[in-house]
Amino acid sequence: MRKLIVILLAISQFFILYSKNIEPDKDNTPQDTLKVYYLDEVVVSSSVKETNQLKNLPTAVSVISPKQLSNSQIESLPDMSGAIPNFFIPSYGSKVSTPIYIRGIGARLGSQTVSLYVDNVPSFNPSAFDFEFQDIQRVEVLRGAQGTLYGRNAIGGIVNIYTLSPLSFQGTSLMLSGGNYGQFSVKGSNYSKLSDNFGLSVAAYYQKDNGYFVNKYSGKNVDASKNAGGKIKMEWEITPSFKALLFSNYDYVNGGAFPYMHKDSTAVNFNEPSSYKRHLITNGLSLQYLGNGFSLNSTTGYQFLKDDMKMDQDYTPLSVFSIRQQQTQHSVSQEITLKSENQSKYRWVIGAFGFYDNRTIDTPVAIKKDGIVGLQSVFDRLSQSPGVPVVMKYTTEQIDLPGVYKKPSSGLALFHQSTLNDLFGLNGLSATAGIRFDYEHAKIDYSTESKGADIEFRFKQAPPAVPGISVNGDTLMQGAFSKSFWQVLPKFALKYQPVETAFVYLSASKGYKTGGYNEQSFSKLLQNSLMESLMRNAMKKMPPRPGGGGAPAAPPTGDVKIPTLEEQLSYAPEISWTYELGGRFEFFERRLSTTFALFYTKVDNIQIIKLEDQGRSGRTITNAGKSESKGVELSMRYNPTDNFTLFAEYGFADAKFKNYQTEKIENGKTVQVDYSGNYIPFAPQHTFSIGASYVYNFKRGLFIDRLIANIQYTGAGKIYWTEDNSVYQPFYGLTNASLTVEKNSFALELWGKNIFDKKYNSFYFRASDMTGKENAYLQRGYPVRFGATVRYTINR
């Protein structure tokens, strides 16, 4: 403990020399406000469960204000990619998947490593992460494991989104925007106080685009989309000490998806439908009672998601594979916290959290006529082998593999966190400690089958008049499995803040990502069961061999251990520990604000995506030993004058497998490979953002009140696409810019995204066709986009 304190003191003293002339805040009210040094903007940043103020948290945190969102053209969560150190969201071609990577930790499939909360209500499915931002009060990104206060699926961090309050803000806004590629959007909202203590807000939006990538097969854009939604929010201060907040958000998406093309091609070229449609409803009820030195907070959440995804899974003009995935999900959550509300040296919070999530996935896969041709070629090669007396032929043009998977899960948690200030009598030294007991139960109820798997056996020596032997291989798999997880998630942090404008901290925290069951594993399992059924039924109809003895006996398995079905379906939780040294310092009368963080994260049982049969049998989740990630994060914001802002964000993450052995297919044979020491795929090693904002105020009486100019460069890379690290996307950067003219309540903005039309790949993967040939596919990045936006805003 003494060594840790000495380290904190030593780091702090250097910066205190430059910041000690800055007077500390004299406002001692308990309200937590954060001054964002970006056009003198101040946002309220209270929390229902943090024992430290947000601006002084002993963890790496970034806060994005409404003005920053507007000036950086951030309209959804993926637009934040790269704008925050080590924060990256790749584009996978639709809103069905919005994986968030923080510090090299992320997930393409299954449970997320970064959780999302909207007005303190959690989302349980990454298919719900990408929605239109409107009337956002602030966005918080907490990096590093946040398991103590947030529990499951927060080993990489947390994203908190808060919307405007109709009690704190009143006004009306309208926005109309258009651009190239058929971009069009309209938004409107109204915030009103219906009485001194009751506020109501309503908002709606609609946007569309014609898509950016042409499908060579159809001659139409493959990714045209429409998005619409609305929300309502009511806030009632029933008494000075008791208030309630109720909100409901609805988001609708309908459009094309997955503009994947062969790596040697210049255009998308496939024949089957590829689209995504989603209905998303999020409701929340928050109650708060302020007592004498404490607050009691309750947050009840409900989320409904219903979507429909269609994909041409062979990505070619041939009719080989197609899939349609339909999800229906009901999620209910309840959190209650009791928190101290005073300025004493000891602050605390205790809480309980529970949830129930019921997700049904209907995933019919179709092997179509060209796929049957590929399967038939396997039979043809087998029939040509010496000693095989029969010719086998599929008698159908399509095999259907329907499946319905119900995946209910539930959980309970108890947590506590305490912060003790002025530790050992030293002013500014504080310690934060917490612990969480987390329980979860996961279940899968499955029903899947094959339809149309009919083949005909014909003996080579048989006369043409002799009919063949028809065999049906249709098979059915039904059953249920369940498992439970227990986790204890501690946290400890030391912080030294000798003055208001400088602090450093050391922290250690544990996180975990839940385990579960692979519904996509059934694609391979069902195909194996289908082949076994075909052979078993065929052997029953085969005539006895000369000399008797019936059908040949199955070969002995020896000492080979065959995993059970549940073992093949399930994957274990992922456990992480994050260690961090960081701080914040402000200089020159707070015109210069800097933050830094050094981190080290180790992960056990890391969950990765595995391509079954090189993509022919879907993608599943498997545990892959251990990994580690270490790096640095730096942020700077400088206001040389009141109307000029410079900012820079940089993150470096060295994320590698520490112990990972697996298998792969080479030349038709299964070989053992060791990826230990390789970089983790899909996570960039570097993120970088730099930009400037300038405001020029004209004299009164002119036809223009002010002129606002913004420019921002955001980059990411190197990004390895495969576990063997043989293919990667080099570092690339995109430049966005805008110029806004304001007069009274009106504003006209001219904007551009990727204004230099940088070429890059946003996604890359490999998949094998029915013959076993491996092909590489990718998604190109979005081209240059530009347009204009008109805004009308009345703030009261």
Q: List low-pLDDT spans.
A: 11-31, 35-40, 547-554
End-to-end CA span: 52 Å
How would a crystallographer describe the biggest sheet?
Answer: 22 strands, antiparallel, barrel
Mean pLDDT across every amino acid position: 88
Strand content: over 45%
Per DSSP E runs of 2 or more residues, the count of β-strands stands at: 47
Shape by Cα distribution:
globular
Total of DSSP H or I helical runs spanning 4+ residues: 6
Evaluate the radius of gyration: 29 Å
By secondary-structure content and strand pairing, the structural class works out as mainly beta
Q: What attributes characterize this protein structure?
A:
796 residues; mainly beta; five-stranded mixed sheet; globular; 6 helices; 22-stranded antiparallel beta barrel
Q: Could you give a short description of this structure?
A:
The chain has 796 residues and is mainly β.
Q: What is the fold's blueprint, element by element?
A:
Layout: H1 2-19, E1 33-36, E2 41-44, E3 60-64, H2 66-71, E4 87-88, E5 101-102, E6 114-118, E7 121-122, E8 136-143, H3 147-150, E9 157-163, E10 171-179, E11 183-195, E12 198-209, E13 225-239, E14 242-256, E15 261-262, E16 275-290, E17 294-311, E18 321-340, E19 346-362, E20 365-367, H4 369-383, E21 390-394, E22 399-401, E23 403-420, E24 429-449, E25 454-459, E26 469-472, E27 476-499, E28 502-513, E29 516-517, H5 521-541, H6 565-569, E30 570-571, E31 574-587, E32 592-604, E33 607-611, E34 619-623, E35 626-641, E36 644-659, E37 661-666, E38 669-674, E39 686-697, E40 706-717, E41 719-720, E42 728-729, E43 732-743, E44 746-753, E45 761-768, E46 774-780, E47 785-795
Parallel strand pairs: 6-9
Antiparallel strand pairs: 1-2, 3-8, 4-5, 6-7, 8-9, 10-11, 10-47, 11-12, 12-13, 13-14, 14-16, 15-46, 16-17, 17-18, 18-19, 18-20, 19-23, 20-22, 21-25, 23-24, 24-27, 25-26, 27-28, 28-31, 29-30, 31-32, 32-35, 33-34, 35-36, 36-39, 37-38, 39-40, 40-43, 41-42, 43-44, 44-47, 45-46
